[in-house]
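Handout, section B. The chain below has 279 residues.
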Amino acid sequence: MEPSVFLAVLAAAAMHAGWNAILKIRLDPFLAVVLVNAACGIIALPPALYFGLPELHVWPWIIASILIHLVYYLTLSGAYRLADMGLVYPIARGSAPLMTTILSLLLLGEDIDLQGLGGVLLLTLGILSIAWGRAGAKFDRTALRLALVCGVSITAYTLVDGLGARSAASPHLYSAWLFVMDSIMITAFALAWKGPRALKPVLGFIGPGFAGGAMSLSAYWISIWAMTRAPIGLVAAVRESSVLFGAVIAVVVLREPLRRERILAAGLIVAGLMLIKLH
């Protein structure tokens, strides 16, 4: 992975943790997801119109991605409704990079050697160890299941978007239209499920919603671009270092307690990143 790509994905990881923290604002997590993604669509619309429509063969990738993203949004918001960010975020994100790497090796034949795999493994262990000491009796089992299904959906849409962006004329064209269509899908789903009246509370959080939307869009846009420049598995692994940033946000901003497992996890994540960077 080129240094510029590595640093860009690391910056994307920090922004990803930031928008997930916004989901814990005083608003129903699902409504927060709808608000953030509506903001993404509005921000992405001008560049989408500038780039023009994707080629016909790109649309199946976009449609598959937005359907998988719907599963992601529902499971993520459902888990956040039942448990703290400090628990849900590392389990959902930590279960994804190893699965993504293995599938990219087996299905796509991507070139990742033992050092790269070692970095992914260390990073995954570090991410999961953040939640390991806390996932006991007090951690709602439904939240755990939702977080794990969320991890599977992350693996699925990462592979779909990596391949979709590679098939498009430009990863930026793909990203712009993905955000626009994803925004339309989740907003329409919310209106059909909750009704217009139930969405009124989002009006009081327009500012945080657009801040989260800008971070979410920038984070994943960078990741999609990076997957056209480096192996999907390695990009996915570096992106999930967002859990380290998420742990800092959980402690500093959300006032969740600092625990020993987070210090251990930080060391493992940094070691994994170093192996990937030196790969």
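Note. The chain is about 80% helix and 0% strand. Compare this with the example in section A.
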